[in-house]
Amino acid sequence: MSRQRTMRDTEYNPLVYFIDGLVTLFNGMVVTWRNLWRPKVTVRYPYQRRPVPPRYRGLFYLKWNEEKQRLNCVGCTLCAQACPTDVISMVKLGKGTHAGVSEFTMDLGRCMFCNLCVEACPFDAIYMGPNYELASERRDASLFRIADLAQGGEEAVRKNIETIERLLAEEEKAKPAHAVHAAGGESE
Hints:
By secondary structure, the protein is an alpha+beta fold. The chain has a domain at 60-183: 2-Layer Sandwich (Alpha-Beta Plaits), CATH 3.30.70.3270. The protein contains five helices and seven strands; from the N terminus they run αβββαββαββαα. Strand 4 (88-93) and strand 5 (100-107) form a beta hairpin. The longest helix is centred in the last third of the chain and has 31 residues, at 153-183.
């Protein structure tokens, strides 16, 4: 019967350990040398920035409709209902086909950027842009109001409210005329 050799049976040979150490060191240097010539992947942020993908989920924006001279948002609240963290709040302006919003607020400190509000909007009024720098030292900096979110800022919000109020006033003026025509007579 042959007996298995154990560590106690072998003699300690420092030369074997020395050569094994040199081979391991050499293998480490080969890996280092190979990686030394690869292209650099480090980006020196904030001086250099990586390109943002087209469907990136960054800061929200409300779309401006040049043709109608107003925001696309009609205040249907579907985005607020779809939001799982209740980030969106709004004040609706008017009713019917010419409705809109006078206030639209998002608390991005609670937002998880899930994109559900964008998908829920049937009017394509809200979208997520490429801006990802939202850090601030102030607590209220994560609260974005309509002027911060609208394309065109404060001027666009002012135009939006003026346009909606004008359309609602025209609709109100047209209502009595329709009521008279529906009754079958003319008023004198």
